[in-house]
Amino acid sequence: MSNLIEISGLTRTYQVGSVSVSALSGVNLQIPRGSFVAITGPSGSGKSTLLHLLGCLDQPSTGSYNLDGVAIDGLDPRGLAAVRRHKIGFVFQQFHLLPRLNALENVELALVYRGWSAGTARQARAKHALEQVGLVEYSAHRPGELSGGQQQRVAIARALVGNPLLILADEPSGSLDSYATAEILALFEQLYMAGHTVVVVTHEPDVAHRAERIVTMRDGQVASDGLSG
């Protein structure tokens, strides 16, 4: 199985006034296609910084990051935006759904950003994404008419609709109760079993152990990396 993600010697240093703060220090990581990986660790461990780099929201200070064979560390802002748009689906702790749009329209919006023109093809693609998360019957519901778990499933459908190579979830259960959390994790497992590459960043051990592999960060480095369970 080939690697979707290949990271070597990755560092990220921030300048805070006259002080340099090292957030990542020589991270090496490979993630094969079709994996379900949890990245965990305490506050300040570097997992959020790694998330930003994986999601092409930031660039490393040194080292290399290849996503699907593309050298991300060499891209300009326009190139990074193109990778985010076409290769990555994001799921966040906050759902970021537009309250005036219904579920179907919120999912369609992701296709608008990808250049899809209005029409039956775009609507059918969004409807299929809602079917994948079991919410097609709620297509006409606005976010305020949905539970937290349902809103997160709409957000996952929005991440899926562009058929991304990588689904990157940042604390996806942080705003949910235990029942909704179980639903969302079961959905991620289904996506993984269907061949998607899913990376979840979490500080919750129970969430991390639902992945097949756990990468633990500490002091800006990978402290451990192994199979879950």
Could you walk me through the main structural features you see in this protein, from its secondary elements to its overall organization?
This protein is α/β, with parallel strands linked by helices. It has helices at 47-54, 77-87, 103-113, 120-132, 148-160, 178-193, 205-208, and strands at 3-16, 19-32, 36-40, 62-67, 70-71, 88-91, 166-170, 197-201, 213-218, 221-227. The strands form two sheets. A six-stranded mixed β-sheet has the order 6-7-8-3-9-10, with helices on both faces. Strands 2-1-4-5 form a four-stranded antiparallel β-sheet, with helices on one face. The mean pLDDT is 91.
CATH classification, class level = Alpha Beta
What would you call the structural class? alpha/beta
Low-confidence stretches: none
Report the sheet with the most strands, covering strand number, pairing sense and barrel closure.
6 strands, mixed
Tally of strands: 10
